[in-house]
């Protein structure tokens, strides 16, 4: 199974969009699976279901950080490179989907009872979010 399909499979098992991405790619960069799931656990649903930045995108940002960020606070080159790659991924995801904002991507605010009902009633998590996980993973594959 490809990493893209693994990320989608993780999402379909019930892990959040962010968890699905970071748990798939994190181990390649030394992040054990349990820690990956824990550290990304608050970022699904557009950051704790606040419908802000898409969790799949945030998961991809975390992977980029694992790959390019430095542990040296003075390494401005690594910081700049990491930020540039994050912006590139965000731009590409926006080109594909129109936004990186969960509320805009889903067309409802899952941070509200009404918005969550809309998402559930219209299978938006299955239909749309699965695509967003696939898109974020596919973009990572192209960039790694």
Describe the structure.
The chain is an all-alpha fold. It has one domain. 71% of the residues lie in helices and 0% in strands. It has nine helices and no strands. It has helices at 3-13, 17-25, 33-40, 44-47, 55-68, 76-97, 102-106, 113-121, 124-143. Helix 6 (76-97) crosses helix 9. The radius of gyration is 15 Å and the shape is globular.
Could you provide a short overview of the structure?
With 144 residues, the chain is mainly α. It has helices at residues 3-13, 17-25, 33-40, 44-47, 55-68, 76-97, 102-106, 113-121, 124-143.
Can you tag this structure with a few keywords?
71% helix; globular; single chain; 9 helices; mainly alpha; 144 residues
Mean pLDDT: 95
Give the SSE order as H and E letters: HHHHHHHHH
Number of strands: 0
* Largest sheet data: none
Total count of helical runs of at least 4 residues: 9
Give the N-to-C terminal Cα separation: 18 Å
Q: Calculate Rg over CA atoms.
A: 15 Å
Strand content: under 5%
Number of domains: 1
Helix content: over 70%
Return residue spans where pLDDT drops below 50 for at least 5 consecutive residues.
none
Which outline best applies?
Answer: globular
Structural class: mainly alpha
Task: Please describe the topology of this protein.
Layout: H1 3-13, H2 17-25, H3 33-40, H4 44-47, H5 55-68, H6 76-97, H7 102-106, H8 113-121, H9 124-143
Helix pairs in contact: 1-2, 1-9, 2-3, 2-5, 2-9, 5-6, 5-9, 6-9
């Amino acid at each position: 199974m490809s990493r893209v399909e693994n990320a989608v499979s993780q999402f379909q098992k019930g892990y959040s969009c962010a968890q699905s991405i970071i748990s798939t790619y994190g181990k390649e960069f030394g992040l054990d699976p349990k820690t990956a799931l824990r550290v990304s656990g608050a970022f699904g649903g557009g950051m704790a279901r606040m419908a802000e930045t898409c969790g799949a995108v945030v998961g991809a940002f975390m992977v980029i950080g694992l790959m390019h960020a430095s542990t040296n606070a003075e390494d401005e080159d690594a910081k700049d490179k990491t930020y540039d790659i994050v912006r590139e991924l965000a731009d590409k995801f926006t080109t594909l989907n129109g936004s990186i904002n969960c509320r805009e991507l889903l067309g409802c605010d899952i941070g509200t009872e009404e918005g969550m009902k809309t998402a559930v009633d219209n299978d938006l998590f299955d239909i749309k979010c699965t695509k967003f996980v696939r898109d974020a993973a596919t973009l990572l594959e192209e960039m790694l």
